[in-house]
Design goal:
Arylamine N-acetyltransferase fold; acetyltransferase activity; alpha+beta; Arylamine_N-AcTrfase; five-stranded antiparallel beta sheet; transferase
Length: about 280
């Protein structure tokens, strides 16, 4: 029997979770902790691009991923977050594959011991705190403070589904359509998709983005360039427009709790790319 890699214990330690049997309940615990510990952010992606490391590997290794969180409070976008969670789930006994939604979003399809398939996604900055039991709960809805996600079948014969987001009752982005058989067990199967994400006009190549869930304060934090937003569980939303780089870093330190976040470095990368983080200087 081969020895389990040390990163598995390190991963669970970061999540502050013990090892348990691969049940639906345990999967829910993992999802919830992952969303609180690993932020959805594009800073690591910009650093990889700036350093050129994206040319030699599709995503950081799981060891690099965990070390980045410990040292710099980084997480990733969907390719990094969901791929490494996929590796952890397999390591602790879950039967799962990577699932492509639309043309560019990566999630996870988990098969439970009794055969039911559930949707797992910690890489969409969405309130998916539990596995979505879309096969048994066809009218499923997962939400937090007015932000809601639904998975609906849109073609029984084609096994086609749709992921939709709602904000305060209004349909918003993203909307993804996907096939349940559009899965793979290797990140290399999505090499073209990941490579495209580094193109000049890639969705996360021309902005600063960071989002995380803070359960103790019953709130979600979101930073997009100089726009900071707090969404509370009761639906209340606070908005701030930050006026300079120091204000952005102060929010990341004081509100997110990320004292070592590489704010100055990534702002320099974006400035060199011609991105103005302060186009919106007035009140939000």
């Amino acid at each position: 029997m081969s020895q389990e890699p040390s990163w598995v214990a390190n991963y669970l330690d970061l999540l502050q979770l013990p090892r348990e049997q691969p049940t639906l309940s345990y999967l829910g615990k993992i999802c919830r902790r992952h969303l609180a510990i690993f932020p959805f952010e594009n800073v690591g992606k910009l650093l990889d691009y700036s350093e050129g490391s994206h040319r030699s590997r599709l995503v950081p290794t799981v060891e690099e991923f965990l070390e980045r969180r410990r040292q710099y409070q980084l997480g990733g976008t969907c390719y990094i977050l969901n791929y490494h969670l996929f590796q952890l789930l397999r390591a602790v006994g879950f039967d799962c594959d990577l699932l492509l939604l639309g043309e560019d979003h990566l999630a996870i399809l988990v098969r439970l011991p009794e055969g039911e398939r559930v949707y797992v996604d910690v890489g969409s900055a969405a309130p998916l705190f539990q596995p979505v039991r879309f096969e048994k709960e066809t009218e499923n809805s997962t939400g937090f403070g007015g932000h809601e996600v639904r998975l609906r079948s849109v073609g029984e014969k084609t096994r086609q589904w749709q992921y939709t987001s709602y904000f305060d009752g209004q349909l918003g982005d993203p909307i993804w359509t996907f096939q349940l058989d559009n899965t793979a067990s290797s990140i290399e199967a999505f090499a073209d998709v990941i490579d495209r994400s580094y193109q000049t006009d890639g969705a996360f190549m021309n902005l600063l983005r960071c989002q995380v869930w803070q359960w103790e304060q019953k709130r979600s934090l979101s930073l997009v360039n100089n726009r900071f937003r707090i969404r509370y569980q009761d639906g209340t939303v606070e908005k701030r427009t930050l006026t300079d780089g120091e204000a952005i870093h102060r929010v990341l330190v004081e509100e997110f709790g990320y004292p070592d976040f590489p704010t100055k470095q990534v702002m320099g990368i974006l400035e060199a790319r011609g991105v103005d983080l302060f186009q919106e200087k007035g009140a939000s």
